[in-house]
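Pasting as-is:
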Amino acid sequence: MRVKDYYVQGKKNLEKNWLVVILSYILMSFSAIISIFVVAIVFSLIIPIDNLGIINKDSALSIILHIISLMIIVYASIVCYAVFQVGYKYSILDIKDGGSFKKDAFFNVFNYNFTKTLALVSKMVIYIFLYSLLFIIPGIIKSIEYSQAVYILKDNPEFTTKECLLESKRIMQNKKGKYFKILLVPIIIYMMIELISIPLHGGFSQYMEAGQQDGFNKVNAISTSITILVMVFLEPLLISIYAIFYRKLVPYKKDVEERI
């Protein structure tokens, strides 16, 4: 299939569910953001570095502790959002498999093995981060290799997290290029939105200066609003495309049984 065909099929997959899919995505995003804030607050209360007293705020130890705590908060935030998104992905995959989309889609992850899902997502984030330290490209390759792991877990709840990752890596052999081409489309779209912001600022130099200024001016509000509007429509479509991509690699078991 061509990349264009994936987008056509992804749109067709959602044609009877657009409204509920978009509203559910917005609700999922807000819930994830709230959860991220809660995680950050809880962690800051558990380890109040600034109030330890024994540590000088300007000391090297204080800086290191702040960096470590920030990394942990970022890691926990990414995992938190990813777990919410897994439930959303499962619900859109259900549409592809002939089922119906659930309004509380992002809570769908709790209907499966939540503990194993959390462990799987946590491992994926760690591995992708570690490979990204080598350089950006190995991190991108590893994220593509592991992109099907959560779907594999849904179809095979008896799999361990390691088996899900290995199976995802196996089925993505010779498919990484196609998947990357699919990812290029939203990247280009978001880059174009940023390029549109340059003339709105009055030129590239003014655009760079505005990015260094504090506050939220009118131009920033316009570009941010455009980005959010595009994201609300584009992200559900992308997740639908990911579901179709996975089903091309791994046919639905019910469909296979009917053919037999």
